[in-house]
Specification:
Elements (H helix, E strand, L loop, with lengths): L3 H19 L17 H26 L6 H15 L1 H10 L4 H28 L5 H5 L4 H17 L3 H15 L4 H7 L1
C-alpha cells in the first residue's frame, strides 16, 4: 500500500487542528494596542502548541520519506497519533483560559506525552512494515532526543502540581530540542 494517501490525510487533519487552535485567538474588545496585553496567555499557548504541531508535521514528513510500504497497523498507529494531536486544541485552550493553572498544565503535558508515545509507536510499527535493511531501518537507531523528551514530559507533569510555570518551561524545552528535524532521518535522506 502506498503512503501517499496516508500523508495527505494526515496533512488535512493537522491543518484542521491548527485551524481549531487559531479560532481561540479572539480579538480584544478595546481599540488600543494595550488591549492586546490581556491576550498573552492565549497567544503564548497558541504559539507553543502551533510549534508542537509544526514539529510533528515536519518529522512525520521526514519519517515517511523513508517508508517504502505501509500496512493496516501503520494506518492505525498513524490515526492514534492524529487523535492525540487532535486533543491539543482543547488542552491549549484550557491552559490559556486558566492562565496556566496546575491541572490544565498537567493535562497539557499528558497530551504531549501521549503524542510522543504515539509517534514512538508509529515509528516502531513502520519499522516492522519495512524490509530488513531498508533506509528506515538504517536511520532509526538510538533515540536520545525521544528519551530525553519523555523524561521532560514526566517532569513537567509532576512540576505542574507544584510550579505550573516550571512545567511550561519543560514543555518549551522539549519543543526547542525538536525544532531541528530528526537528524537520523535527515542523514538517511542525504
Amino acid at each position: 500500500m502506498s503512503s501517499e494517501r496516508l500523508k495527505a490525510f494526515s496533512d488535512g487533519v493537522i491543518a484542521i487542528i491548527i485551524t481549531i487552535m487559531v479560532l481561540e485567538l479572539k480579538p480584544p474588545h478595546g481599540e488600543e494596542f494595550g488591549a492586546l496585553v490581556g491576550l498573552w496567555p492565549t497567544f503564548l499557548a497558541y504559539a507553543v502548541s502551533f510549534t508542537y504541531v509544526a514539529i510533528y508535521w515536519n518529522n512525520h514528513h521526514h519519517l515517511f520519506y523513508l517508508v517504502e510500504s505501509i500496512d493496516g497497523a501503520v494506518l492505525w498507529a498513524n490515526l492514534v497519533l492524529l487523535f492525540c494531536l487532535s486533543l491539543l486544541p482543547f488542552a491549549t485552550a484550557w491552559a490559556a483560559d486558566t492562565e496556566f493553572a496546575s491541572a490544565p498544565m498537567a493535562l497539557y503535558g499528558a497530551d504531549l506525552l501521549a503524542c510522543a508515545t504515539a509517534y514512538l509507536v508509529l515509528g516502531r510499527v513502520l519499522l516492522r512494515a519495512q524490509e530488513a535493511g531498508s533506509k528506515l531501518h538504517a536511520a532509526i537507531g538510538d533515540d536520545l532526543k525521544g528519551k530525553v523528551s519523555m523524561a521532560l514530559y514526566f517532569a513537567g507533569i509532576a512540576a505542574a502540581f507544584w510550579r505550573p510555570w516550571l512545567a511550561g518551561a519543560f514543555y518549551i524545552t522539549v519543543a526547542a530540542i525538536w525544532l531541528i528535524p530528526d537528524r537520523r532521518i535527515v542523514r538517511a535522506l542525504d
